[in-house]
Design brief:
This protein is mainly α. It has one domain: Methane Monooxygenase Hydroxylase, Chain G, domain 1 (Up-down Bundle). Helix content is about 55%, strand content about 5%. It has nine helices and three strands. The protein has a three-stranded antiparallel β-sheet.
Length: about 210
């Protein structure tokens, strides 16, 4: 883990860097926690300054995408049910959607509720640990960059055990790979088999 408030060339005012993992399967709880993690910056900004800026735009985009994936693709909404629809970009600009307008509105509602619940939980966690938030902010103002060891010294060890340490060169290589592939922190889908694509085409073709 590495956190920095030093501006980058792509106009980002800072970043939190975590080495990507080769993980393809995520539980509902894991995805929800990733949403909370992504909302940490927006919630911290609102708590500290009592206002928000455009700085969390990319985080909100990721949170929105994960929420819709949980509801629309992963079958993780009890009210929507065990369904999986393709992303809008996969359907193209023409053709009928394989679901009704009413179901679309329901999925919109469920995704919005999920994001709101994640934000409330993130806000509560930060308010309960506001002293640690201030300590971390002061450390960043003083040093501009803090790594895993710095964070552990400030906040204490992680509740679920120590994290794997990454060599500095690994950070550079991982960041370069992400830029080359356009990869971000969103969960990656598992590898697809050819027969899976044929089955999906057969069952999801609109009539």
């Amino acid at each position: 883990m590495k956190v920095s408030i030093a501006p980058r060339t792509n106009a980002a005012l800072g970043f939190a860097q975590i080495l990507p993992r080769d993980q393809y399967l995520f539980s509902k709880e894991q995805l929800f926690e990733r949403m909370c993690m992504a909302l940490g910056g927006r919630a911290s900004e609102a708590i500290t300054f009592n206002k928000v800026t455009t700085g969390a735009q990319d985080d909100l985009r990721k949170v929105t995408r994960v929420a819709y994936s949980m509801v629309k693709q992963y079958g993780m909404s009890s009210s929507v049910g065990q369904v999986s629809f393709p992303e809008t970009v996969e359907q193209g600009a023409v053709g009928r959607r394989p679901f009704s307008q009413g179901l679309q509105q329901q999925m919109d509602h469920e995704a919005k509720l999920l994001i709101a619940r994640a934000y409330r939980q993130t806000e509560k966690l930060l308010l309960d640990n506001r002293d640690k938030l201030i300590m971390l902010a002061n450390a960043l103002l003083e040093r501009e960059v803090v790594n895993y060891e710095d964070i552990e010294a400030l906040l204490g060890p992680p509740p679920h055990g120590p994290k794997k340490m990454i060599a500095p060169q690994s950070w550079i290589e991982a960041e370069k790979d992400k830029q080359d592939t356009g990869e971000d922190d969103e969960p990656r889908p598992p590898p697809r088999r050819k027969d899976d694509d044929e089955d999906n085409d057969e069952h999801l073709r609109p009539v």
